[in-house]
Write a structure and sequence with these properties.
Elements (H helix, E strand, L loop, with lengths): L1 H29 L6 H7 L3 E9 L16 H11 L35 E11 L5 E4 L1 H4 L4 E5 L5 E10 L4 E5 L9 E2 L10 E6 L7 E13 L5 E5 L11 E4 L3 E9 L10 E5 H14 L5 E2 L2 E5 L2 H7 L7 E7 L3 H5 L6 E5 L2 E2 L5 H7 L6 E8 L2 E8 L1 E2 L20 H4 L3 E5 L2 H7 L5 E6 L1 H5 L7 E5 L2 E2 L3 H10 L6 E7 L2 E7 L4
């Protein structure tokens, strides 16, 4: 009887232990590596290979085009692995290959001229947006191409028409004449988390339908004016450009676009365009064939801790206005160089890179509010957003309008300044200021140069050399001072740091 009691007790212990181990086993399974096979089956048919062609020219070999993703080095690398069976390469014909002919070593080698016909230019990737043949890819994949060829996973090949391309965001939309195609599902980038598993499908080095995987390394990487990119450690190489970045739900969250590399190949850091940003661009490309962006005409910089302390800003945030274009929307709204833009349209600007994105996504012609910090106070301005265009080149003021005059106080900061004539004031449309005749030492390091017109020092306006000298005399020469100046049509802001 005692034996059976011990047996029952032991059985109960093992049962409890088993019940205790089950959650641990389940947790271990959750922490295991993911299986991407279902995702490949789900999204793979929506990914396409893109080849571009161009008319033969005097360029030196495949890949000479600006948008090319392949070159002779890559082709040679593939030959080492595949020989004449290299992906996409025709079978070698010794009789037709001039390099296979035997030649007299004494006879100078001649370069065989390229035939005057379409030549392979580059290879990239893309993915199907709609069942009727809209495909999204990178702008640099199709840039400059005379012909774009799209190959589906079922080996069907189509000539594509470029609907629109935007270099600033590196997004392009092309169209093939087909129906019933498997379109991708678009994901929510806001749900994407750092450390989350993601997968890429593309054609690295022309190797179609290649699958690579990794994790999201970071979000909101500032590598451009208009796009906060997604950083991953997914293996991306030449030919992957334009392919989708896919989350574990089978949704596209980005377009693989760039890599950080010192060798030209993958080194563990790659970048993808967030799909929400790309979608906004593609909508405009599909509607009008181009992207319209807002602009307000300011040159901006990051607000450092040193700058914040210099101007009395409690926190280092916002966008420091280094320059204001004359006649631009910002100038008409009353924005001045030296202002710090804290909000645009009611949205807080944490860093300077936020401003061009907010403005760029605003429809030209619409009105927005600007919250700015100026000389210790915050004020609201209303700006009518203009349309982004090529920036004007600033004109240098004529040097004949004034006579140089050295000022001792200014020389301690590396400046030689002089008064402006009435004619110079009228031409620049300003009430006063002092002209920089020469800049050296601290002033030169701050970016000042001859021809600039200083209108404010240490947040105090100066209209004459006498006023300028009086302000400088009161300033602690061991501290950094801020200077507002004009250069041609632009008002700009600079910090002069004392010489050590």
């Amino acid at each position: 009887m005692k034996f059976f009691k011990n047996l029952l007790a032991s059985t109960a212990v093992f049962a409890l232990a088993g019940a205790f181990l089950l959650p641990l086993q389940t947790a271990a399974q959750v922490r295991g590596l993911p299986d991407f096979t279902e995702l490949v089956d789900q999204v793979g048919p929506s990914v396409v290979n893109i080849r571009t062609m161009e008319k033969a020219s005097s360029r030196g070999g495949i890949g000479g085009g600006s948008g090319s993703e392949s070159d002779e080095d890559i082709q040679e690398l593939l030959r080492k692995f595949f020989g004449d069976r290299m992906p996409g390469a025709p079978k070698a014909d010794p009789k037709a290959d001039p390099r296979a002919e035997k030649s007299d070593p004494k006879t100078p080698k001649r370069r065989v001229p390229e035939p005057r016909e379409d030549q392979p230019r580059g290879v990239g990737s893309g993915f199907i947006l709609s069942a009727d043949g809209l495909v999204m890819t990178n702008a640099h994949v199709v840039e400059g191409a005379d012909e774009v060829l799209v190959t589906l996973t079922d080996k069907r090949e189509f000539k594509a028409k470029i609907i629109g391309s935007d270099k600033r965001t590196d997004v392009a939309v092309i169209k093939i004449e087909a129906t019933g195609l498997p379109a991708v599902k678009i994901g929510d980038v806001n749900r994407l988390k750092v450390g989350e598993w993601v997968m890429a499908i593309g054609s690295p080095f022309g190797l179609e339908n290649t699958v690579t995987a990794g994790i999201v390394s970071a979000k909101q990487r500032d590598t451009g004016d208009y796009l906060p990119l997604i950083q991953t450690d997914v293996a991306i190489n030449p030919g992957n450009s334009g392919g989708p970045l896919i989350n574990m739900r089978g949704e596209v969250v980005g377009i693989n676009s760039q890599i950080y590399s010192r060798s030209g190949g993958f080194q563990g850091i790659s970048f993808a365009i967030p799909i929400d940003e790309a979608a906004r661009v593609s909508d405009q490309l599909r509607t009008t064939g181009r992207v319209s962006r807002g602009r307000i005409g300011v040159q901006i910089d990051q607000v450092s801790k040193e700058i914040a302390e210099s101007i009395g800003l409690p926190k280092a945030q916002g966008a420091l206005v280094r320059g204001v274009e004359a006649g631009a929307p910002a100038a008409l709204a009353g924005v001045e160089a030296g202002d710090v833009i804290l909000k645009f349209g009611g949205v807080t600007i944490e860093k300077s890179a936020d401003l061009p994105r907010f403005v760029g996504n605003t429809k030209p012609g619409s009105k927005s509010t600007l919250s700015i910090y100026r000389r210790g106070a915050t004020k609201e301005l209303v700006v009518t957003v203009g349309e982004l265009e090529d920036e004007k080149v600033a004109k240098k003021p004529a040097a004949k309008d004034v006579k140089p005059k050295a000022v001792t106080a200014a020389q301690s900061w590396g400046l030689v300044v002089s008064d402006l004539t009435d004619a110079a004031k009228n031409e620049l449309k300003i009430k006063g200021g002092v002209k920089v005749d020469s800049a050296s030492d601290a002033a030169e390091r701050a970016g000042l140069r001859a021809g600039d017109v200083i209108s404010s020092v240490a947040n105090m306006e100066v209209n004459t050399v006498k006023e300028f000298e009086a302000v400088l005399a009161k300033i602690d020469k061991t501290k950094t001072i801020n200077v507002l100046f004009r250069r041609g049509e632009w008002a700009q802001f600079a910090l002069i740091k004392p010489s050590k």
